[in-house]
Structure to design on (118 residues):
């Protein structure tokens, strides 16, 4: 966990709050995507700190409500991050534009422009 950012506590706190809200709405972390040989709880912890999730939390904290978020990633977005971003777009009422190395995703109201095919 990188702690060098001055808003570290606020970012992680925001993300934890979003995760709680998502779980109340039916989100189940896809731990099959974690390849480390660790306990299930540790796999969830590893998933929750992917860079795009942290970037979204940062964007929600630092931009006015209703402002679209733009995230660029140099790797492919994992399936769990894709699912989480759909949930966050629904919870926050924000449009989230995410570009990974192979696709462009536009998340709005809990769905993605890619139709969950990427």
């Amino acid at each position: 966990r990188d702690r060098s950012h001055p808003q570290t506590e606020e970012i992680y706190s925001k993300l934890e709050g979003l995760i709680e809200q998502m779980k109340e709405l039916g989100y189940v972390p896809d731990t099959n995507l974690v390849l480390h040989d660790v306990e299930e709880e540790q796999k969830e912890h590893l998933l929750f700190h992917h860079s795009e999730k942290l970037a979204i939390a940062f964007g929600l904290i630092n931009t006015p409500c209703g402002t679209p978020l733009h995230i660029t990633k140099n790797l492919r977005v994992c399936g769990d991050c894709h699912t989480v971003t759909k949930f966050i777009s629904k919870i926050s009422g924000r449009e989230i534009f995410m570009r990974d190395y192979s696709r462009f995703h536009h998340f709005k109201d809990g769905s993605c422009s890619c139709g969950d095919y990427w």
